[in-house]
Write a structure and sequence with these properties.
With about 150 residues, this protein is mainly alpha-helical. Helix content is about 60%, strand content about 5%. A two-stranded antiparallel ribbon has the order 1-2. The mean pLDDT is about 90.
Length: about 150
């Protein structure tokens, strides 16, 4: 019997494509990773550490997914260069490192790389940006567009 078609699971931001892309979701995921690393470092309770670890890993994976979607769907072939490809690869590595380990530095490095990606993303569109203190329970900066 001949196989007429095959099914595979596909993930995307939008199948339209809608043209709505924003690295903010990746920034929030990276901030969450950073916060979970802080909480893990402060906690002595095994149950809490287990919960924080699960959330940290979930958000590290979400960060990777959001960056990959923008890299794969928003940036065109002519936009791709060594700088952006290396940065996306670095984000993938840093998110994996943050999943594997418990040091706050890994979360800081991940957030910084995501901020650099956000700067490239917004500059591609000619949008002015600024770095601001994140309004959350973590001391860090995020990149936002000046609207």
């Amino acid at each position: 019997m001949r196989k007429l078609f095959s099914l595979r699971r596909v993930y995307a931001h939008c199948d339209i494509p809608c043209g709505i892309y924003d690295p903010h979701t990746a920034e929030i995921a990276a901030l969450t990773v950073l916060r979970m690393l802080e909480l893990i470092g402060e906690s002595k309770d095994a149950h809490d550490i287990s919960r924080y670890t699960a959330v940290k890993e979930e958000h590290a994976e979400r960060c990777k997914r959001e960056i990959m979607i923008i890299w794969g769907d928003f940036f065109k072939t002519e936009d791709l260069n060594i700088e952006i490809n290396a940065l996306v690869h670095r984000i993938m590595e840093l998110a994996s490192r943050a999943k594997q380990e418990r040091e706050r530095k890994h979360g800081e490095d991940l957030l910084e790389a995501v901020n650099q990606f956000a700067e490239l993303f917004w500059s591609k569109q000619g949008v002015k940006i600024k770095r601001v203190a994140a309004p959350h329970k973590v001391e860090a900066q995020i990149v936002i567009p000046e609207l």
